[in-house]
Structure formats: C-alpha cells, structure tokens
What we know:
It is an enzyme of class 2 (transferase). GO terms for molecular function: hydroxylysine kinase activity. Helix content is 38%, strand content 17%.
Amino acid sequence: xxxxxxxxxxxxxxxxxxxxxxxxxxxxxxxxxxxxxxxxxxxxxxxxxxxxxxxxxxxxxxxxxxxxxxxxxxxxxxxxxxxxxxxxxxxxxxxxxxxxxxxxxxxxxxxxxxxxxxxxxxxxxxxxxxxxxxxxxxxxxxxxxxxxxxxxxxxxxxxxxxxxxxxxxxxxxxxxxxxxxxxxxxxxxxxxxxxxxxxxxxxxxxxxxxxxxxxxxxxxxxxxxxxxxxxxxxxxxxxxxxxxxxxxxxxxxxxxxxxxxxxxxxxxxxxxxxxxxxxxxxxxxxxxxxxxxxxxxxxxxxxxxxxxxxxxxxxxxxxxxxxxxxxxxxxxxxxxxxxxxxxxxxxxxxxxxxxxxxxxxxxxx
Length: 365
C-alpha cells in the first residue's frame, strides 16, 4: 500500500472484473484457469488463481497451491525498478530459507507485464501485472494468537531482517507516505478526523514523535525492512498444539529504514488482535533474540507503535473518503482507536519495563 515521494497522491483506480482478470492470466502467463477469487487489498487488485495446465515455457511444473495475480495501483506501477527489486528480494529470501511468495515469469520470460488502459482519445494509464506463488496456510487474522506464536513471529521478523542485510539495498532507499519516519505527513490528512478526542491524541503522538524520534532518526540502526508486517501479511500453519509463522507476503512497502520501525509496525498490528499491551513482551522478546536493539531505541517503542496506529487510522479514513466502496480500508478502525487510547494513556516507563521484561529470558522458541 505504498505511494512514492512521502506524500499522498491521487491514483487512478483500475476496474477489473473476474472474467477480465482470468483473461490476463491466460493471455500473459499461458495458464488455463479453473477458478479465480478476489482477495482483500488496500489499493492493488489481488486474485487467488487455481490452474489446470500451462503453455508457459517458464512454468514446467504447476505450483499446487495456485497463484496470486497482482495488478499494482497506478502510482506504484510507475516505478518499474522497484518492482524488479521486489522480485529479486523475494527470490533471495526464498533461497536463504525465509519463506515468501515467488515471482513467476510470463510467456515472454519477464517477471512483469504492462497493462495499458485507455482514459480517452489522448490519455491512458499503465498498470504492472505480476503472478506470484500462493503461500499455503492461514492468515494470522484468522487464528487466535498465543504468547508463543507472538514470540515466534518476532523471531521470524528478526531472522528476515538479518538475512536482508546481505541483500543490495540501493533500490530500497526510498520513502513513501507509509514510511513510519514520514509520520509528520499525516498532519495534512487530520481534517478527516471529526472526533475531538481522536484529533487531540493524534496531534499529541505526532508532536511527541517529532521531538523524540525524528530528532534522532539519523542514529537509529537501519537496513531493509518489510514495512507492513501485519496480520494480513503473516501466514501461519497449525502445529500439534499451536500455530507457528511459516511465511511473509507483500513486499510493496519494503524500504531502508530503522529496525525499530519494523518492530513497532509489527507490534501495532499484532496488539490490535488481542488489545493487550502485555503481549508486546513476547513480540519484543522474540525479535530481540536475534536483533539486539539499543536500550535507547527500545525506549522509543511506545511513541513509534502509537505513531503507526495514528498513521494507519488517519490514512485509512482518508483513503476511504476517496474510495468508499473498499470497506477493507476501514478494517482496523474500531480496534485501532481503542488500542491507541489505551497505550497512549499508559505510563511510558511502565510500558517500556513491561515490553522489555522478556528480553534474554531462557525461553523455548
């Protein structure tokens, strides 16, 4: 759900029905479609595709779980270099034992195609079309998370961040409106808040973030981060007694940023599932088992987690005002505001002590 240049820009929505999506799969990727289903998406078009046969010379064996047809929004489609970088990163991670989707070549041997849509006699818009392997399992949002699962997710994220240190980060040196470091940009959209309490809390969080995070952002430990480690992008599988994370999807918001922000974004969305600040202890403990963030950075967790909540909630309302037919955009509103109010009113020292109390404990993972 990324938009370039650190600001909200207008995108041209794509209208694509199931028949047209199926035709794209068959024409561009040479696959015979059995079934195609739309999936939730913020500003792209995603479909789960089941196929029966291939005439694509690059697909010698069908992926038994099916594929994801992904049509990027008009803004992200303008950055072909970053699309290629995502494909390379996903391939790299799979080769280094971090499970994620794999890009699939089209019939011309390329990992992406361009769909041109006419807007009139002299104007048109381009959309990037990709095919990715569908990752089997359950979305985190569809299971009841345990403390052990939260620890496991934190551990998975840290391992992924460590592996990505070995990947060339040059094409990921970018900012988008969803980069947590660009939180002050949210001020331009605060007019969507009609509730005085929500507006007051949002302003407090943004001002605190400016004073305590932006002022020292240059000293934070950095590398490539996923940037949207949420319950819709985390795939889990059943074990004998619980669930464990098995895959991460959607690298559309990946960029070079602070590892503190990766942890904060993950905590924001995971804590919304349980509404329990105590669960942050397990996430921090799992992440810290492999990624040791300095104490001074961990003290910024509260404002960073709350900052992501403000960012997600305000942008959600803003984008919904532009596209009211997409109710998925509002999926976090009720739980998000409830959690934000709870965390922001909690004493900062007490919250820091709680969240860091599991670090270095001798716990099985």
